[in-house]
Write a structure and sequence with these properties.
Largest sheet: 5 strands, antiparallel
Shape: elongated
Distance between the termini: 109 Å
Radius of gyration: 33 Å
Strand order of the largest sheet: 4-3-2-1-5
Oligomer: single chain
Order of helices and strands: HHHHHHEEEEHEEHEEH
């Protein structure tokens, strides 16, 4: 509703400017300001209003398109892809509209147009310096467009980046916002995702495998652990009934490393499932195999020495 109100106000202002152009003449203002100032202000307002109207129309079209794709569905991979493309496309169009509006306004000013032509015609060195200064900005914009086309990630994808895991919250032309699991926000430039490796946990599907490590003594019964793990999983709503694995992955001098693999429908659910399985398996070992908890063995030898007179 607010967008429609802003659009209506912009159209009314544009109509008013056209009416002023035909109703009032320059002679009404010649005593106060010069003709060039009036024309410049008038052209600037018209360009600004037209640009704002186009931007608002683009916003409204985007909202209507996104309303057709419900992101709240559990299997929303296709919808997340479309949301990402539409949002980035809107940002590119808005950027081009603003850039065009600024260019038209500057061209409409006679003095600035002449100065600009002279600078671009004679000052090649200045152009090179400006180009080098704007290199990072242009690189970031091109990276944003490349992400929109290639889509290494989408809105609401679960990612692991900079030793943090979270979800892609915003994809902009120059920066990406990652919502960390503890509600912090990690803001990274778009070029980061093209230059450095990162993990996308929901690239093709939302389901993910979680890992739980448990360390025990050599006396533990592996079959008993496997039975208890299966019992816990089949009675847990967090499990998606796909992955149920318990293996001994390492053996050290004092302990065994037992790795448990479980799966769930998405990364937050997998995290909760990992925590649940870890707690319950430790409780099971404490109650049924307390002697198999990690321990340190010390062998004391008592050697009696005979002393002869």
């Amino acid at each position: 509703m607010k967008k429609y109100i802003r659009l209506s106000i912009s159209i009314l202002i544009l109509i008013f400017l056209f009416l002023v152009e035909h109703i009032f003449s320059f002679s009404d203002f010649s005593d106060y300001v010069s003709e060039s100032v009036v024309n410049t202000v008038k052209k600037g307002l018209i360009i600004a209003c037209i640009s704002f109207i186009i931007i608002e129309i683009v916003h409204i079209i985007k909202k209507r398109l996104l309303a057709q794709y419900d992101m709240s569905q559990e299997d929303n991979l296709k919808y997340r892809k479309l949301h990402t493309q539409i949002n980035l496309l809107e940002k590119v169009i808005v950027f081009l509209i603003i850039l065009t509006a600024v260019g038209l306004f500057l061209i409409s000013i006679e003095s600035i147009r002449k100065i600009g032509v002279g600078i671009f015609a004679s000052a090649g060195v200045v152009g090179i310096i400006i180009g080098l200064s704007a290199q990072k900005i242009v690189g970031a914009l091109l990276a944003g467009i490349q992400i929109a086309i290639a889509q290494p990630f989408r809105v609401d994808d679960a990612v692991f980046v900079e030793n943090e895991w979270g979800w892609i919250e915003e994809i902009n032309l120059t920066y990406i916002v990652v919502r960390i699991w503890d509600k912090r926000r990690l803001v990274l430039p778009t070029t980061y995702f093209l230059e450095k490796p990162f993990q996308n946990w929901t690239r093709t599907s939302a389901d993910i495998i979680g890992t739980v490590f448990i360390y025990t003594d050599y006396m533990i019964s592996f079959e008993a652990l496997r039975k208890e793990l299966s019992r816990l999983l089949y009675n847990c709503d967090l499990w998606d009934r796909n992955v149920n694995v318990l293996q001994v992955t390492d053996s050290k001098e004092t302990t065994l490393e037992i790795r448990i693999l479980v799966s769930a429908k998405n990364s937050p659910t997998t995290w909760d499932l990992r925590v649940y399985i870890r707690e319950k398996m430790i409780e099971f070992i404490q109650k049924n195999y307390p002697e198999s908890l990690p321990r340190t063995r010390i062998l004391l030898e008592n050697k009696n020495t005979e002393i002869q007179d």
